[in-house]
Specification:
- The complex is a heterodimer of chains A (265) and B (298).
- Chain A has 265 residues and is of the alpha/beta class.
- Chain A is built from 11 helices and 10 strands.
- With 298 residues, chain B is of the alpha/beta class.
- Chain B is 30% helix and 17% strand.
- In chain B, strand 11 and strand 12 form a beta hairpin.
- In chain B, helix 1 crosses helix 2.
- Chain B is globular and about 55 Å long.
- Classes of the chains: A alpha/beta (265), B alpha/beta (298).
- At the A-B interface, helix 3, helix 5 and helix 6 of A face helix 5 of B.
Chain lengths: 265, 298
């Protein structure tokens, strides 16, 4: 049993193979290759316009690549090229085995329906039809992301920014995905709220053995959360390695600049 | 007067063929919304332009037409449409459900059980059941194509969370033939069970939204619900004040400004039929007395 689990963790979950994307003459993403293993957190850092968000969209199959491909090991153990999945399969993957946390919670949540329904939506989408069980699972998840269960029937538009972001995380994790994409999840939150959110994310990631690809321009977020870092500039990956290695001992001049631009605490 | 310059049943033959093709496709894919080139009709949108076009396309000279509006045969909308076809198609009209071969309806299904030789045509304002949950048409079409109906349950969930029960009382979503989720037009949910396994053909026409959909005879139509909150048809808990019916859908009519009200069958034909058969409610005599005398005289 343990052997099988190790074997599972030894095979990459997601493999990107020389991914490229160009918009006309502008190459937003050039020749990006990497493997992501189960339970691994990969941070993609770089300034705005460096191709981080394009990369995230390519990886999550929301955008068709101009070159290269992405393959993903499905729950049944078969590794498949995302481009060959039918739309139905891709969408199913998106609401079961994957999560996507947007920078702006309004994009990832239904602002007009209650928090409980927001969390329950994925469950209902995969065929749950017992109100009591959906509600219990939703309350359970609200507790896990530190939202007062008494607010389960309130719409997220009555929530604070930090609560919305936590609700978005709960909504994504309710189907126990194996891979979560995050696009600047702490952007726009004040520092203390950021710290709490990061703390929460870190414990959930460990607890659920989540693989995460997190796009951020905030090196502190990368340092706190990720195991590995990929530095992007002008659509290319210029440096990659273990987080502490890259951040404490940057090799590329651009990475050195990036690291030195953080104010010392 | 000149002879009427209209083609039989108002629409020209090419248009009718186009609508019939859409109807055939709709019958072939139960519950699927087929787009069609809806025409301008001599009535405002919202008054049944979709239903009228479907009726015009299927009507033959031998047909007997009944038109109801909120269950009633004698409201403005029902009378106008009935007159419209009497004039443009010269077909016989009736108010008796059993005698009709085509019944155009707004917001109700007759209480009298339908039979195999009948077609029920619904007027539909908004055919898309997901419309108020997902505003993008491209997205709702994709959701239908992939049978992604989780969102529909989100609406029902919200009802229970807010009101303790599924408070959707009309336009209650149904799943047709275990595939497409469909809006049964704004009929009360009381009527939903009548759609299931119905011997008559049911056609739905939405003129403004340019959609036609259908439920072929004897098709499974299931109302969406939760295991622990099953679908329940709703009806006021009172007998009809005119015919004492306990099984019909009731309209609540406010009778003065002191809070008095009466409950009467919304299906006027059913109610009159019962009264003629000798059933009387607490308030029967009044509104129908005059008419009953008139009938006996004539």
């Amino acid at each position: 049993m343990a052997d099988q689990a190790t074997l599972e963790n030894d095979q990459p979950l997601l493999v990107a193979n020389s991914l490229s994307k160009s918009y006309g003459r502008i190459a937003a993403c050039r020749d990006v290759s990497f493997s992501l293993y189960p339970g691994e957190v990969l941070a993609v850092v770089g300034e705005s316009g460096s191709g981080k968000s394009t990369l995230l969209q390519l990886l999550s199959g929301q955008l068709a690549a101009s070159g290269g491909h992405v393959s993903y090991r499905m729950r049944d153990g078969v590794t498949r090229d995302l481009a060959t999945l039918s739309e139905a399969e891709r969408r199913f993957l998106f609401r079961t085995d994957w999560g996507f946390v947007h920078q702006d919670p309004a994009q990832g949540l239904r602002m007009a329906v209650s928090a409980g329904a927001n969390v329950g939506e994925r469950l209902m989408a995969v065929g749950w039809s017992h109100y009591g069980r959906i509600r219990d699972t939703a309350s359970d998840w609200l507790t896990r992301v530190e939202i007062d269960v008494a607010r389960i029937d309130d719409a997220p538009r009555t929530y604070s920014g930090g609560m919305r972001q936590r609700l978005q995380i709960a909504r994504n994790l309710v189907t126990e995905p194996r891979l979560v994409f995050m696009d600047e999840p702490t952007g726009g939150l004040d520092v203390s709220v950021q710290a709490r959110l990061l703390d929460l994310l870190r414990s959930l990631v460990t607890e659920l053995n989540l693989a995460v690809i997190i796009v951020t321009h905030d090196l502190a977020v990368a340092r706190l959360l990720s195991h590995r870092v990929m530095v992007m500039k002008g659509g290319r990956v210029i440096e990659t390695g273990l987080t502490d290695q890259v951040l404490d001992d940057p090799r590329e001049p651009y990475t050195q600049l990036l690291v030195s631009s953080i104010l010392p605490p | 007067m000149n002879a009427p310059a209209y083609n039989f049943a108002y629409l020209d033959e090419q248009t009718k063929r186009m609508i019939r093709r859409a109807i055939l496709k709709a019958i072939a894919i139960p519950g699927y919304q087929v787009p069609f080139a809806s025409r301008e009709m001599p009535m405002p949108y919202g008054w049944g332009t979709g239903g009228v076009q479907v009726t015009a396309a299927i009507l033959g000279p031998q047909d007997v037409l009944k038109v109801i509006d909120q269950g009633s045969d004698d409201t403005t909308n029902a009378i106008s449409i009935r007159k419209f076809f009497a004039k443009t198609a010269g077909v016989a009209t009736t108010t008796a459900t059993e005698e009709a071969s085509v019944i155009q309806t707004r917001h109700r299904i007759p209480e009298t059980a339908l039979h195999e030789n009948q077609v029920l045509v619904y007027q539909v304002p908004i055919p898309e059941p997901l419309r108020f949950l997902e505003p993008r048409e491209t997205e709702t079409r994709r959701m239908h194509a992939l049978a992604e109906y989780g969102l529909m349950h989100v609406k029902l969930y919200e009802d229970i969370a807010r009101f303790g029960h599924i408070a959707t009382a009309y336009a209650y979503p149904v799943k047709v033939n275990a595939r497409y989720v469909m809006d049964p037009s704004p009929t009360p949910k009381f009527d939903n069970p009548k759609m299931d396994n119905c011997p008559a053909l049911q056609l739905f026409g939405a003129g403004r939204e340019k959609r036609i959909y259908a439920i072929p005879p004897y098709t499974r139509v299931a109302s969406l619900d939760f295991e622990d909150h099953p679908f329940e048809p709703y009806r006021f808990n009172a007998p009809c004040a005119l015919c004492a019916a306990e099984d019909s859908y009731l309209d609540e009519i406010v009778t003065d400004d002191k809070g008095s009200r009466m409950f009467v069958c919304s299906d006027t034909d059913y109610c009159e039929g019962r009264q003629a058969a000798g059933h009387h409610g607490s308030l029967s005599a009044a509104p129908y007395k005059e008419r009953a005398q008139g009938d006996s005289n004539g």
